[in-house]
Amino acid sequence: MPPPADIVKVAIEWPGAFPKLMEIDQKKPLSAIIKEVCEGWSLGSPENFALQIADATNFYITEKNRSDIKNGSILRLTTSPVSTAVQLHERIQSSSMDAKLEALKDLANASRDITFAQEFINLDGISLLTQMVESGTDFGDLLSFTLTAFVELMDHSIVSWDTFSVAFIKKIASFVNKTAMDTAVLQRSLAILESMVLNSQDLYHKVAQEITIGQLIPHLQGTDQDIQTYTIAVINALFLKAPEEKRQVRLRCTHTHKYTAYTVSCIISCCSHQHFSTLTNVIRSNTPINDEMAHQLYVLQVLNFNLLEDRMMTKMDPQDQAQRDIIFELRRIAFDVELEPNNSGSIEKRKSMYTRDYKKLGFINHVNPAVDFTQIPPGMLALDNMLYFARHHQDAYIRIVLENSSREDKHECPFGRSSIELTKMLCEILKVGELPSENCHDFHPMFFTHDRAFEEFFCICIQLLNKTWKEMRATSEDFNKVMQVVREQIMRALTAKPNSLDQFKSRLQNLSYTEILKIRQSERMNQEDFQSRPILELREKIQPEIMELIKQQRLNRLCEGTCFRKISSRRRQGEFWYCRLSPNHKVLHYGDLEESPQGEVPHDSLQDKLPVADIKAVITGKDCPHMKEKGALKQNKEVLELAFSVLYESDEYLNFIAPDKHEYCVWTDGLNALLGKEMTSEYTKSDMDTLLSMEMKLRLLDLENIQIPEAPPPIPKEPSNYDFVYDCN
């Protein structure tokens, strides 16, 4: 007979004594259990003791988390959080440097636990740490562990960031501003500054006053990727919190070409221009870029492109002479004409001449092309791109305009209209104006290799558009078709993640219109869906076989098992647990792991079991209980898409967050298959389409002149001897 569900068998350690094996009744108060344990070792004052998980985390067991205790868990009897906090509060003030260092190490480790953190903070421990930092008497490891403990304590969001003094902020900023600083101290100082900026608008202003571009750039020029990552994170945080007017400094700099000293609130502007080579060195380093660095570069890329949003959403004022002068400049460069004085020729003659030239330039409104730029998006951004192209790639600009103006009207590629639509398309591709995603790592290295990356990107693409137009022998009626092909060319080239704009250009040269047609034809052949009645009947006949094959694959993957991360609200991802299905498909085995496994985890090493027969439902997304908790993983979209829960018994749940979309689909499909429900994931649809297409093609092979025997061929007789077999021994 199985033991009651409320009874768990554990081992409990106490320093200097043999571990005890005990049965813990989860219905009993935790204080009563601790008292019983203390009595077993003849220890008095049980209120001064507590239980911890005996692993690298050393987290305290409380009434809230005691349900995490599983059969086979190893616990440790230790001093209570209150007692430990009092002891460490005294020890870190020791006059002995060695004793103080050991105390700070213990504090940094203990502060990861929220139960201890609450008690230490109640003793005004945060204020003590900030005073130690402000005093400036500690250096090296002493300072490093002080800052580590501070970061761990603040991670629990118990204390508001707004409570810190200007003196503390100045001190942390000074560690960043120093050219030679201990790596650990610098890393934690950068982390503190990032948190300050992200969690307080008031602190943003104070931090921005203390940090200049001169102090941050050297940290990007080093070789330590962690330091580089934290530095870019600070840049991103400052830019996210910067007022709108300061974000637009980049655009003003673009027009004035002045790259003087700026506050860190516009550091991204300076990185985008004067110091872009620094970011290039980061990206092209010999060290592989880790996920966190990739995410920070992605955020920096998004924020940089979002600077374009203001121009993208600004309509042109047809009455603004300065804006109209830009159009006059485009005409002057293209046709090498000087602006005529107002008294030269009749008004009608000048209007006729302007209309003719604006038509050659490809504007929709030949009389007043300013009207073309009243559409948002792309607004004035399109005109900015056209002017940049005309000034910085003058030969290519003149060639395109004159080449098209010499063609028949219906075959000309209208430069003005094309530029406006292309700018709008590029903004859509790069998602200009959208906030960065929390878990995305999709950055493009080529955009970090030029100080005017978006403008150069446009210049390459407008020349591609003109080339594709000629290859397609397009007319004005084919404009939208050409734009669709150009979009496909750009997207396919970006997929390869070129390291430079030159590589992107080379990639586009290999994606001519002819090549796109070949790719499309190949994809159509692979996805061909015949609609004749016999073919449809064959598909219907085959489909159940394919679905059964997919089902077996999903169940086999569940039998192999998957390692899942335990993710807290602070995004600490140091713990793992493993879950797998038994070979007979009747039981889910699961249990905690100390580290990520290198292969399959045996069933007998997983302590917990859940009979499949007890599973009532599979819940996904925001309906999962661990997604409904307050502040659970910041409720970001990516985590919601990977969350699922298994409901069993009355209100019990086994909660999952899949490592990626593929594992999410495999597990939700497999669990639904176990419950006899339909597998509805997007991967099931994709697998069905792929396997069904392959099976259809195999069955519809051209078998002309190939005689198919009605019976299988006979098995050949055994040979008279096996002398032809090579003996490996």
Description:
It is a single chain. With 729 residues, the chain is α+β, with helices and mostly antiparallel strands. The chain contains 31 helices and eleven strands. The strands form three sheets. A four-stranded mixed sheet has the order 2-1-4-3. A four-stranded antiparallel sheet has the order 5-6-7-8. A three-stranded antiparallel sheet has the order 9-10-11. Strand 6 and strand 7 form a beta hairpin. Helix 13 runs parallel beside helix 14 (267-273), helix 14 packs across helix 15 (276-283) and helix 23 packs parallel to helix 25 (501-509). The chain is flat, with a radius of gyration of 34 Å. Mean pLDDT is 84; it is low at 250-275, 569-573 and 630-635. Residues 322-494 form the ELMO domain. Pfam families: ELMO_ARM, ELMO_CED12, PH_12. One of its GO terms (biological process) is phagocytosis.
In short:
This is ELMO domain-containing protein. This protein is of the alpha+beta class and about 725 residues long.
SSE layout and pairings?
Elements: E1 7-13, E2 20-25, H1 30-40, E3 49-53, E4 74-79, H2 81-91, H3 97-110, H4 114-122, H5 125-135, H6 140-154, H7 166-177, H8 183-199, H9 201-210, H10 213-221, H11 225-241, H12 244-247, H13 249-256, H14 267-273, H15 276-283, H16 291-306, H17 309-312, H18 321-335, H19 347-360, H20 380-392, H21 394-405, H22 415-429, H23 453-472, H24 479-495, H25 501-509, H26 513-526, H27 533-560, E5 562-566, E6 575-581, E7 587-593, E8 608-611, E9 615-620, H28 625-628, H29 637-642, E10 643-648, E11 652-657, H30 661-674, H31 682-699
Parallel strand pairs: 1-4
Antiparallel strand pairs: 1-2, 3-4, 5-6, 6-7, 7-8, 9-10, 10-11
Helix pairs in contact: 2-4, 3-6, 5-6, 5-7, 6-8, 7-8, 7-9, 8-9, 8-11, 10-11, 11-16, 13-14, 14-15, 18-20, 20-21, 20-22, 20-23, 22-23, 23-24, 23-25, 27-30, 27-31
